[in-house]
Write a structure and sequence with these properties.
The chain is α+β, with helices and mostly antiparallel strands. It is built from 10 helices and 19 strands. 23% of the residues lie in helices and 20% in strands.
């Protein structure tokens, strides 16, 4: 089965997925003699994959999972900076094979770190989009108020973006020093320390106690142990607060993107006009052959009440009143003596009465010679 090459290189302990992508981008990886690009796929059973001209061998190496208590001033990286002579977590174990760390910690922090050659599991448990939980025991200066804890849990704006919702509970409170239990699903650089300082309660000590349901209990700083099957299962099991955190993340996403919370149903911007029950059973007023402009005109005229009909400027005596049929047929308007002069043949001699189908009776016009 074909898989992405950078994933296969990570499985072969050539490097992490990101490092393998860099090797591919530099043109140092070939598949069947051809240079590949990032995102290309290959089958490790049938294709020949080479890095810097050397064939990659995919052996069935035994999966290894190590739980380690990282002490203070020990680095989580593979290679420290040139001017930094401190130990790394990989110096504390006797294995020299390529291992990945699950849950990095800064030098001033201590607690549980898992080392493994299972690159796929390391990616799944470390990347923030999978929302795997990590639990911390944090000692801060002072006693945070309830409002401060709510703000911390909802998310705080930092220089590199908004923090994800988390769970913050007071384990032991004191006006001088408070112990907190914090459960998170992401880990920005020195995130807990930055948020605590921003809220006015700097961190004095930070210990990671759990990754998922796996506990650091039983280990002292610098000690490690290989994990059994039950511990591996506990490592992959998130804490009980995961449902609460996922719900809070959905609420934060909707709030940041302008959507309404789940508790409030979405409302229409403008409600449709009220229609009577008779409108639901009323047949269509016009056939499909009627032009669209005529339908619109009929709807507008029907909506007008007698006192809201449009009127021209001036009094009521200097203009003719429009009837419904006249508005549809402007050529049928009735006028008085002040209308434009008419010629014979402009309009029929008489109009039909719709109710009787007989010619309508027209009253003779008065002239100056007629007697009052």
């Amino acid at each position: 089965m074909k898989e992405r090459v950078h994933k296969l290189l990570a499985e072969a302990n050539i490097g992490s997925r990101r490092e393998s992508e860099l090797l591919i981008a530099q043109g140092r990886v070939r598949v069947n003699g051809a240079v590949i690009t990032v995102g290309d796929k290959a089958d490790k059973d049938t294709d020949i994959i080479e890095v810097d001209g050397q064939k990659v061998i995919f052996g069935r190496s035994q999966k290894r999972y190590i739980a380690l208590y990282k002490p203070k001033q020990v680095l989580s990286t593979h290679v420290p900076h040139r001017s930094d002579d401190r130990q790394t977590v990989f110096d504390l174990i006797p294995f020299k094979e390529r291992l990945f760390s699950i849950g990095r910690l800064d030098a001033d922090s201590e607690g549980l770190i898992v080392l493994t050659n299972d690159g796929e599991m390391a990616q799944r448990l470390s990347h923030p989009r999978f929302k795997h939980t990590k639990t911390y025991k944090v000692q801060v200066v002072g006693l945070p108020s309830e409002r401060t804890l709510e703000r911390w849990q909802a998310g705080v704006e930092l220089e590199d973006g908004m923090t994800a919702p988390c769970v913050v509970k007071i384990v032991k409170g004191d006006p001088r020093e408070t112990t907190l239990r914090i459960i998170m699903t992401e880990g920005k650089k020195r995130q807990i320390r930055r948020v605590a300082s921003l809220l006015g309660h700097p961190v004095r000590r930070l210990v990671r106690t759990h990754i998922g349901m796996l506990s650091v209990e039983g280990l002292r700083p610098g000690e490690w142990r290989e994990m059994n099957a039950a511990e591996i299962e506990a490592l992959q099991t998130p804490s009980r607060e995961i449902k609460q955190l996922r719900a809070a993340s959905r609420q934060q996403y909707k709030r940041d993107h302008g959507a309404q919370p789940e508790s409030r149903p979405a409302q229409r911007e403008s409600a449709p006009p009220h229609r009577s029950s008779y409108a639901a059973v009323r047949p269509a007023a016009r056939s499909s052959k009627t032009s669209s402009w005529r339908k619109k005109a009929d709807e507008v005229i029907d909506s007008w009440s007698p006192d809201r009909r449009p009127r021209r400027e001036g009094g009521a005596s200097d203009r003719p009143r429009l009837r419904r049929d006249d508005a549809r047929h402007p050529s049928r308007r009735e006028g008085g003596a002040s209308d434009r002069p008419r010629r014979s043949g402009d309009r029929p001699a008489g109009r039909q009465n719709r109710s009787t189908n007989r010619p309508a009776q027209r009253r003779p016009r008065k002239t100056e010679n007629d007697e009052e």
